[in-house]
Amino acid sequence: MTRIPPYRPGTWVKLKATHNGRGAPDLSGKVRQVKSLTCSITSAEQPTAVWRVHFHDGRCVEWHAVEREATESEIRLAS
């Protein structure tokens, strides 16, 4: 069973700040608008599907890299 992320296309989200070298460092702590979500299993040994959040600039992250929905002031600063 896979938990479905609560984010939908058009939603603005704030990404988690990465301090451990994992993830995309240039997206660390950024606010981005969600373009789409995908879910995939890439190997027969993979026990659960992985959700990815895609953004308008072509970048994507696994859904657990999203901290929360962005606030109105964060959205204004990002756009």
Short key terms for the protein model shown above:
79 residues; single chain; 5 strands; mainly beta; five-stranded antiparallel beta sheet
In summary, what is this structure?
Helix content is 9%, strand content 34%. It has 79 residues and is mostly beta strands.
Topology:
Layout (H helix, E strand, L loop, with lengths): L11 E4 L15 E10 L9 E6 L4 E3 L3 E4 L2 H7 L1
Antiparallel strand pairs: 1-2, 1-5, 2-3, 3-4
Polypeptide structure, described:
This protein is mainly β and 79 residues long. The protein has one domain. 9% of the residues lie in helices and 34% in strands. A five-stranded antiparallel beta sheet has the order 4-3-2-1-5. A hairpin with a 4-residue loop joins β3 and β4.
The termini sit apart by: 36 Å
Main sheet properties: 5 strands, antiparallel
Uncertain residue segments: none
Structural class: mainly beta
Shape: elongated
Amount of helix: under 10%
Order of helices and strands: EEEEEH
The number of helices is 1
Strand content: 25-35%
Adjacency order of strands in the biggest sheet = 4-3-2-1-5
The domain count comes to 1
As an assembly, this protein is single chain
Strand element count: 5
Overall residue-averaged pLDDT value: 88
Give the C-alpha Rg: 13 Å
